[in-house]
Design brief:
About 3% of the residues have low confidence. The strands form 5 sheets. The chain has a 7-stranded parallel sheet with strand order 11-12-10-13-14-9-17. Strands 3-2-6-7-1-8 form a 6-stranded parallel sheet, sandwiched between helices. Strands 21-20-19-18-22 form a 5-stranded antiparallel sheet, with no helix packed on it. The termini are far apart. It has 26 helices and 22 strands. The chain is of the alpha/beta class. The chain is globular, with a radius of gyration of 29 Å. Helix 9 runs parallel beside helix 11. The structure holds a DNA duplex.
Length: 717
DNA sequence: ACGTCTACCGTTTTT
DNA sequence: CGGTAGACGT
């Protein structure tokens, strides 16, 4: 076969990575260096020249988006279907494994997937049954604890509490929660991974089967793998397996969620002939932007080391804008975007990035005012919306009566006269009999154990679900859904709500039926259409609803910007305590993760980057005088320019960075100083000269103060 | 069973 | 300051 198209257009390092014949290959791929390209081309190379069967290849990603993209690109490069390859997310592949071997994994064939929201509900219920006060023991915390344990491969029996009440209590919750999941046939996200790991660990036959099958394992975004994912990969990749991992330690921004960058070093250690290839040529950004990114990330200690470069021109300097406050910050961005659009550029080519979602509000206001269309990423995904989940809960219950989570959700939705105390009776009965809620409900109806009205309502509910299944299940998916929406009166209930929300809800319900119509069962071989659809709904929660067709400005957090690129990028709120965030400033490793986030943000920009900060910001109703983010100060002065024209209130932040431009009084704006009485603060402003010289300092202890330099004993620190 | 009030809380979120 | 979850009152 002619391999030209596979190697064409690749640079030296990329080509080396694609054709490497090492058993273990580590590709350290900088931002915009073509890592997906390498992965896709390597798969094609293995098939076309090494005669590896597609059947023997597994490629793992973190997001559905990435796995779809990989699959499509492999198919178009090879010119044939990639369906015999296992390409998917960690969760998707784990799910596939568990479905194929449900019995071995000790799961019912009908098991359903809990998303985080469902999981929290189950945990709440379990904790209530344990009589744990939810002020003292927040369910969120228990959820976090359970998932953390699972991410580390731990079951309740593996947890040492050493008398620690926090750990021992949460371990009990974990245990009870597992029991609840087992009776309901429910599996949460972390459980998918852990169960899939245990399945292979404890079943030699299966393990060997898959180890023999997969001759090549490729993993994307390896810096984001957690403990259990790493362990799972190790299990599958036996000695004969080639393993390629691609990642960037500088873009690891999910440590707070269990991702372990150390896994990269660990890989290097544990896979003996591992070869490391660095992709450092960047095809995205200007020289200036890359230099800034390199300079910022160079301040991190824990790095494998990498320096991005480009053939591209230097481009424009990075613009800094010191806004008076967050409104003015938003106003400035809106004005710049309007200019940009007027020059014939698309709105969709520019992005506004921020550290936390709360910042989006003000920005939205000003875009709205200027009538600039925008789209905010984040928020509820399609399959996470209440009306959609209600419908799905009915379907889940129809197909799996054991599903207690679904039962709880819809037993009184829409309201049918089953109040808190009636439902509590059902729960109690289930507890006593060690049965599911569904079984308990039937028993209660048979015994007429509730008031006549409530008994009738409960019986009506049971009939509704039973009948729904009997009548609908032979029909096509979308009809089943349509009929469910109608027969349960969900549509009616939401139609009664008022306002724009109700309209959106009705649209979403209609959309759900059409999503089912377009649903491709092929992606889930061997599953019944409904089971496949329900799994799909949990595993791929879908896009955040917005008109993607319209040309609009993209607004999102820095986290969700990873992997994307835009010609024009604004990063708002470049302020200490906001970015780096207050909660991540104390510990060195957290601060380094913030810095990586800054690195991710900067490297999103292709042509032009604006960094903004406000001198005054209202935060939770309180006025604050933040200091300029250290990440701005870490960018060399020659790469940036201050765009504020009127600098009566403030001087350029980097005025003092070269000796000649030292602030008149020996202090620079943004500099930290110490005062004998007020402690540490940051210089906000200064005015006057000689004996009249005054500086405005924002002290951590007492806030902003003007001080006469001649009297105040300020020390630089 | 529904609507109103209040107390609380307030990074980031691939699945 | 603003959103929301749960309590409380009708």
């Amino acid at each position: 076969m002619d391999v030209t198209p596979i190697l064409d257009g690749l640079n030296k390092a990329q080509r080396e990575a694609v054709t490497a014949d090492n058993q273990a290959l580590l590709v350290l791929a900088g931002a915009g260096s073509g890592k997906t390209r390498v992965l896709v081309h390597r798969i094609a190379w293995l098939i076309a020249t090494e005669n590896i069967s597609p059947h023997a290849i597994m490629a793992v990603t973190f997001t559905n988006k990435a796995s779809h993209e990989m699959k499509n690109r492999v198919e178009s490069l090879l010119g044939r279907s990639a369906s015999s390859m296992w390409i998917g997310t960690f969760h998707g592949l784990a799910h596939r494994l568990l479905r194929a071997h449900a019995r071995d994994a000790e799961l019912p064939d009908t098991f359903q997937i809990l998303d985080s929201d469902d999981q929290l509900r189950v945990i709440k219920r379990v904790m209530r049954e344990m009589n744990l006060d939810d002020n003292e023991w927040p369910p969120k915390q228990a959820q976090w604890f359970i998932n953390k344990q699972k991410d580390e491969g731990k079951r309740p029996k593996d947890i040492q509490h050493n008398g620690d009440l926090f750990i021992s209590t949460h371990t009990k919750v974990y245990h009870a929660y597992q029991q609840a999941c087992a009776t309901g046939g429910l599996v949460d996200f972390a459980e998918l991974l852990l169960k899939a790991f245990e399945l292979l660990r404890d079943n030699q036959h299966l393990r060997e089967h898959y180890q023999e099958r997969f001759l090549h394992l490729l993993v994307d975004e390896f810096q984001d793998t957690n403990g259990i994912q790493y362990a799972w990969l190790r299990l599958i990749s036996a000695s004969n397996c080639g393993i390629t991992i691609v990642g960037d330690d500088d873009q690891s921004i999910y440590g707070w969620r269990g991702a372990k960058i150390e896994n990269i070093q660990r890989f290097d250690r544990e896979f003996s002939d591992a070869k490391t290839i660095r992709l450092e040529q960047n095809y995205r950004s200007t020289g200036t932007i890359l230099k800034a990114a390199n300079a910022v990330i160079a301040n991190n200690q824990e790095r494998m080391g990498k320096n991005l470069w480009t053939d591209d021109s230097e481009g424009e300097p990075i613009s800094l804008y010191a806004a008076f406050n967050e409104q003015e910050e938003a106003r400035f961005m809106a004005a710049r975007i309007a200019d940009w659009h007027q020059q014939g550029n698309a709105y969709s080519e520019c992005a506004i990035l921020y550290r936390s979602n709360a910042q989006s509000r003000v920005i939205e206001e000003f875009l709205l005012q200027r009538q600039i269309p925008y789209r905010i990423y984040g928020g509820l995904k399609f399959f996470e919306r209440a009306e959609v989940k209600d419908t799905l809960a009915y379907l889940r219950l129809m197909y799996n009566n054991q599903d207690d989570a679904a039962f709880e959700r819809v037993v009184n939705t829409p309201p049918r006269g089953l109040g808190q105390k009636s439902v509590e009776k059902v729960r109690e009965m289930a507890r006593i009999d060690q049965s599911t809620l569904w079984e308990a409900a039937q028993k209660i109806v048979a015994e007429s154990a509730l008031t006549p009205k409530a008994t009738a309502a409960l019986s009506g509910f049971i009939e509704l679900v039973k009948l729904g299944y009997e009548e609908f299940h032979p029909l096509p998916l979308s009809e089943q859904i349509q009929l469910t929406i109608e027969s349960t009166n969900l549509m009616e209930m939401y139609a009664k709500e008022k306002g724009e929300k109700a309209l959106a809800r009705k649209e979403n319900l209609a959309e759900l039926a059409s999503a089912a119509r377009e649903f491709d069962v092929e992606d889930y071989p061997d599953l019944s259409p409904m089971t496949a659809f329900l799994a799909h709904a949990s595993l791929e929660a879908g896009d955040t609803q917005a008109e993607q067709y319209e040309d609009c400005v993209q607004m999102m957090t820095l986290h969700s910007a990873k992997g994307l690129e835009f010609p024009l990028v604004f990063i708002a709120g470049m302020e200490e305590k906001l970015f780096p965030h207050m909660m991540s400033m104390e510990e060195a490793d957290k601060l380094e993760e913030e810095r990586r986030l800054a690195y991710v943000g900067i490297t999103r920009a292709m042509k032009k980057l604006y960094l903004l900060y406000a001198e005054k910001r209202r935060l939770w109703g309180k006025e604050t005088y933040p200091a300029v983010s250290r990440f701005i100060r870490e960018i060399p002065a020659q790469l940036k320019e201050e765009v504020r024209l009127n600098s009566q209130l403030s001087q350029p932040v980097f005025a003092g960075e070269s000796e000649s431009a030292q602030g008149a009084n020996g202090f620079n704006l943004g500099q930290f100083v110490e005062h004998p009485k007020f402690g540490v603060g940051v210089i906000l402003n200064y005015e006057g000269e000689g004996a009249q010289a005054r500086v405005q300092v924002n002290f951590d202890s007492v806030g902003a103060k003007w001080l006469v330099l001649a009297y105040a004993k300020l020390e630089a620190c």
